[in-house]
Batch of 3 targets.
Target 1
Amino acid sequence: MVMFDDELEHRTVAELIRSLYAIVDEFERRNRGRRFTPDGHLVGSIGEIIAAEWYGLTLYPASAETHDAKSPCGREVQIKVTQNETGQVGLRSEPEHLLVLYLARNGSVSELFNGPGALVWNAAGRMQKNGQRPISARKLRILVAGVSTTERINPVERAYPLKVTDEHFVE
């Protein structure tokens, strides 16, 4: 087991994400008809560590109410992650600032929204039985087009190489 741990220690976040999805694919291959979708806390926590690294955020303890982190400029930030570019995210309360990331199976990540939480909260659907107000990725892309650069949290210099393309952040 030690050899496997040593091997993982030197992998990038994108490589670890690709490995995670390779394991999911293998479980699904071996168990036809069963889905092994990474979701919930796992995907949320992955998104939080990526956002913290890219934007220089200070993360709060897990499961903090409303906000997940504080930005270098002092904004309270809620971080949401989706694995479906056309899916949706849900909000339980209005955050000061919202970051929504799309996590792809190949380990790439793209920013769907980076701006004032009130903008998204006011455009989200009505409260659902699960206590969340949904908003689609499509609507987030429309809303972010109207967010000025001064309203966004800018990425910081990173310890590992990362370039921004039109669609995805890629290691």
Note: The longest helix spans residues 13-30.
Target 2
Amino acid sequence: MTRLPSRELLVRRLRDSYVNPEQFDREAYIMDLFLYQSTMNPLYAGYCGWLGVRTGDVNKPGEIPLMPVSSFKMYDIQSGNWMPETVFRSSGTTSANRAKHLVRDISLYLDHTVFLWQEHFGRLEDYCFLALLPGYVDRGDSSLVCMVDHFIQKTEKNGSCYILGREHVLQ
């Protein structure tokens, strides 16, 4: 039987991957994360059970069941008992009932957004972000705005900023 990894070990492995991405076994990490979530998250464990999926039968990431988005509208999805540091909500464009994403550690979340950006596009510091997000900025609970705020703060010296309107672009 596979040993259940602790949250602390999973977080440490994720943070280590930022420093040594070539040594990071993404597939093994995803499988360990699935084991953790399917054990420590009662809603997800129940969903897997409802689907008839047993943890030991999942052998690769492509076999991991994905929860429907509607679950995030009806329940607080989290592994363990903790208070979220931040709660992001979906835009609600298709429904008045907005999905929630509970975030335990906002610094880990933001570090990961930077890592993912740099993995695909290169150093964040090499970019200038001009953000036009009408309707999102006023909400205050948007993960997109949180990420863009973070990116703008890190690249402000490059001229990164929010574009308030079209007239700003023409200046």
Note: The helical segments are 7-19, 26-40, 42-51, 69-74, 106-121, 143-154, 166-170.
Target 3
Amino acid sequence: MPVDLPFQALAALWFAAYCVMRVALGPECAFARVARAASRVPGLTGIGLRRALYQRWLGVCGRRVIIGYGSVLSSRVRIAEEVSIGVYCHLDDAEVGRDCLLADAIVAGASGPVRIGEDCWIGTAATIASNVGPHCIVGAGSVVTTPLPAWSVAVGNPASPVSSRRPQSAI
């Protein structure tokens, strides 16, 4: 039996509750309420439930995605494969590339659409208000207000590149 099958069945029940609420509250409000409720389910059950729900709801949500406890995503989020989102993150209007690691308490896309490129590492409590190029590292507590070029290592408020992560053989 596939590992995700029990979570898909559980997600189907949550989706039924969403459909009922959608009639009474409207789609965005119902989505937000069910997403917040799902964010509070602890442990592996919660991780599996959130992955199954967002794969059902979002236009794009890849396989092998981990969404941590307390993290809430809006219906405008798109997530590629092999992405890990830490606890208490809030993603509003964001596209997250393949093989990204978002630490805890990240805020992305709250002030407008943003894209986080593939293979990025975003540190704890960072705020992403502008695009982050592929293969970037954003330090903990940093605030990205201007686009970061590929392979950048950026820190600070506002975040600015301090070095490059590009392999020496590619320079």
Note: The CA atoms of residues 58 and 75 lie 6 Å apart.
